[in-house]
Specification:
The chain is of the alpha/beta class. It has a single domain, classed as Ribonuclease Z/Hydroxyacylglutathione hydrolase-like (Metallo-beta-lactamase, Chain A, 4-Layer Sandwich). Helix content is 26%, strand content 27%. The chain contains 8 helices and 13 strands. The strands form 2 sheets. The chain has a 7-stranded mixed sheet. The protein has a 6-stranded mixed sheet with strand order 1-2-3-4-5-6. A hairpin with a 5-residue loop joins strand 9 and strand 10. The protein is globular.
């Protein structure tokens, strides 16, 4: 399995997952032309994509939906998220079930906690048994999410903000409250705590994603996770790999 983070953050999110000649995209949150360019940069032809999986219908996750119409790619999303997704040709629309088989990928969904209709995360296993879990916008990580994500070889986890930076930011108080709520976004500490329970030290690859450009720093997010894993006795580049996107 190969995982490429093509875009990450409030400006847009796109993830490419490949195995045995098949490719899935999770979210298409930047312009179609930018997705095409970034796919080609990592060696993926846009017309070879098997399916697009949507976590939720906020613009930074669905801006590039016209890609599907151009290349006739089926789009899978929860029934609730289709309520606010427009402009997709009817024959390409698919309702994502809790367990879905798409070519070489066995996909399990889990509910996340965000201010959308029916946001979900994904755990995806290829035919070799490699597993990637995608947990983006969520205000908390619960036991059912943890259970679905356990034994992942790749963990794509939101590490959105540092609360102290958010507190002193210029954001309106209503926006601060939304981000900090249980249907907002994960802080560095929340993400690190979840990862410290998921990582077993078997060489897993962590991608810290969806960092706020205003209320976080890449090195701070990374250091927070490394410290949490150090307490479990796990060392970066020995027991696991970590990349901030």
């Amino acid at each position: 399995m190969k995982v490429d983070i093509l875009a990450s953050g409030s400006g847009g999110n796109v993830i490419a997952i490949r195995s045995s000649g098949n490719t899935l995209l999770v979210d298409v949150g930047i312009a179609k032309t930018k997705i095409e360019k970034r796919l080609l940069e990592v060696g993926v032809r846009p017309d070879s994509i098997d399916a697009i999986l949507i976590t939720h219908a906020h613009s930074d996750h669905v801006k590039g939906l016209p890609l599907a119409n151009k290349y006739r790619i089926p789009i899978f999303a929860s029934e609730g998220e289709w309520k606010s997704m427009k402009g997709v040709d009817p024959e390409l629309r698919r309702i994502m079930t809790s367990n879905q088989l798409i070519n070489n990928f066995d996909i399990t969904t889990f509910n996340v906690h965000h201010d959308a209709f029916e946001p979900i995360g994904y755990s995806i296993i290829d035919k070799f048994g490699d597993k990637v879990s995608v947990c983006l916008d969520t205000g908390k990580v619960d036991s059912e999410m943890m259970e679905t994500m356990k034994n992942s070889d790749f963990l794509i986890m939101e590490s959105n903000h540092e609360p102290a930076m958010l507190k002193h930011s210029k954001y309106p108080n209503s926006v601060k409250a939304r981000i900090l709520s249980n249907i907002g976004h994960l802080s560095n500490k929340q993400s690190a705590e979840a990862l410290s329970k998921l990582i077993k030290g078997t060489g897993e690859k962590i991608f810290l994603t969806h960092l706020s450009s205003q209320n976080n720093l890449p090195e701070l997010a990374k250091l927070t996770t490394i410290r949490a894993l150090n307490k479990k006795g796990f060392k970066p580049e020995i027991d696991y790999e970590i990349e901030v996107c």
